[in-house]
Amino acid sequence: MALHASPFQLFYFLVEWFVLQVLRLFQGPSPRTEESVQGKVVVITGANSGLGKYVADEMAKRGATVVMACRNMVEGQKALEEIKRNSGSTTVELSELDLSDVSSIRKCAASLKSKYPTIDILINNAGISLDCAERRFTKDGFELHLGTNHLGHFLLTNLLLDNIKKASSGRIITVSSTAAVMSNLNIDNLMLENSGLGLGNTMPYNNSKLANALFSKELGKRLNGTRVKTYSVCPGLARSNIFQHYSTTGKISMGLGKYTFFLPVNKAGDIILFCALAKELSISSGKMYRFGRQFSSIEPLLTDHLATALWEKSEQLVGIQ
Ligand SMILES: NC(=O)c1ccc[n+]([C@@H]2O[C@H](COP(=O)([O-])OP(=O)(O)OC[C@H]3O[C@@H](n4cnc5c(N)ncnc54)[C@H](OP(=O)(O)O)[C@@H]3O)[C@@H](O)[C@H]2O)c1
User: Fold this and answer.
1) Number of domain units in the chain
2) Range of 226's domain?
3) Global confidence as pTM
4) Nearest ligand 1 atom to alpha carbon 237
5) Where in the sequence is the signal peptide annotated (predicted)?
6) Which regions of the chain are under pLDDT 70?
C-alpha cells in the first residue's frame, strides 16, 4: 500500500515551498511566540545541535525544565553548559537517548517517566539524513532513516504518553519536512528491500518524514478526548548540521544553499517553537504546519488509511502491541 504525489502536485508543492522559504528569509520575524513555559517540563530529542539546541535554549530562557535527550553525551554536555550560561537556567538536564537503538529508547523513557511524572511538551526533533548509496540499518535492523526518525520517536512517544496525558495541556511536536511530499512510502516495503538506492537518493529520508506526519496525524486522532494535542512541522531548510553525513557532492550542493536561501537556525527553530507554544493552535490536533501556517496541501497524502496502517505496522516492529 503506497500513496504518491502526482507530478503536478509535486511541482506545486516545490514551487510553493521555495517561494515561502525565500519570503521567510527576507521577512521580519518568524512566527515567534512569547508564551511562557514557566514550571513546565519540556523534553527535546537531538537537543545538542541545530534546531533542537536553539529550541532547548529558548525553552530554558522562558522558564521550563528542559530535558535534552541526546545520543552524543560529550556534545550534549557542551550544549547543556552553553544553554545554562545563555539562559541563566538551572533546570536544564541531559538524558542519553539513541533513537536507532530500541533498548536505549526504553532505558531513556523509563528514567524520564520516573523522574518527571508530568511531561508537558515532547518535541520529537532529532533526525538523520543521508544521500544514500546503499541502505543502512539501526541496531535492531530497521532501515536507518525510518528506524531513527520515525520508529524511534514512535516508541519514545508511546512510552511517555501516560506522563504527557497528565499535563494540563500537553503537546507533542514531531519535526517532519516538506521532503515528505517526495516520498514513496510503501507500507509493504518499509525497509526498502531491493530498492536499488544510488548516491544522491534521499528517498529513505523523505519516507521517514512522511511517516513523521502520518504518525502525528494518527496520534492526534487516538488522543481525541484527552488534553494532549499533536502537531507535525516542517521548519524550512536551515543552516544546521543535518547535511553533515552527505557525500561530498551532496555537501557542496547543500553548502551553496546554506550560504544563499537557507534559513538561519533561529528562524527555523521559531517555526518549531510556534507549534509547541502558540495558543491559537490549541484547538487543532494532528495537522502539519510550516512557516507558521497549516500545510493544507499535504493533506491528500496523509490519508486515514495510510496513517492507521503505518501505526499498526510500527507497533509490530517496535513490539508495543
Ligand atoms: N535543517 C534543515 O534544513 C531541515 C529541514 C527540514 C526538516 N529538518 C528536520 O529538523 C530536525 C532537526 O535537524 P537539524 O536541522 O537541527 O539537524 P542537526 O543539526 O543535524 O541536528 C540533528 C540532531 O539529531 C540527532 N540525532 C541524529 N541521530 C540520532 C539518534 N540515532 N539518536 C538520537 N539523536 C540523534 C543529532 O545528534 P548527533 O549530534 O549525535 O548526530 C542532532 O542532535 C530533523 O528532524 C530534520 O529532519 C531539518
Assistant:
1) 1
2) 7-315
3) 0.95
4) 3
5) 1-25
6) 1-3, 27-32
